[in-house]
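Quarterly update from the structural biology core.
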Amino acid sequence: MNQVLIQEQVFDTGQVVQGLYQDNPQVGAVASFVGVCRDMNEGDTITQMRLEHYPGMTEKSIAAIVEEAREKWQILDCVVIHRVGILKPTDPIVLVAVSSQHRRQALDACAYIMDFLKSRAPFWKHEATLEGDRWVSTRDSDKTALERWK
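Predicted structure, tokenized:
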């Protein structure tokens, strides 16, 4: 099963992770990643970030990334939750959690999904800083991260 959620509400990481192995004796590993809103970017203080998306297109894009991971690794289950709306420093933004029978499968699939999510999912980030507001572009480091999966 795959679950892709785009929401404004805070997610409960522990509950999501537990849901991936609870009642499934095949699970031998769960790998997860939580992305958090920072208070600094490019040397500027961030007071808040607004995340926007295109409903329907965003979910399809993320689901396609998860399917690509399923083709590469033996994933039992995967949950991707991405928040939108106004976020402040220390707010969780994204959760990727993957279950598998083996640790390496879960870890690699989780990293793959997150790397592609950063560069291919249609989200628009707008930061409010002490120096002024700005739209955030994809970083070169995010593009470089994709190279290891070729």
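The chain is about 35% helix and 40% strand.
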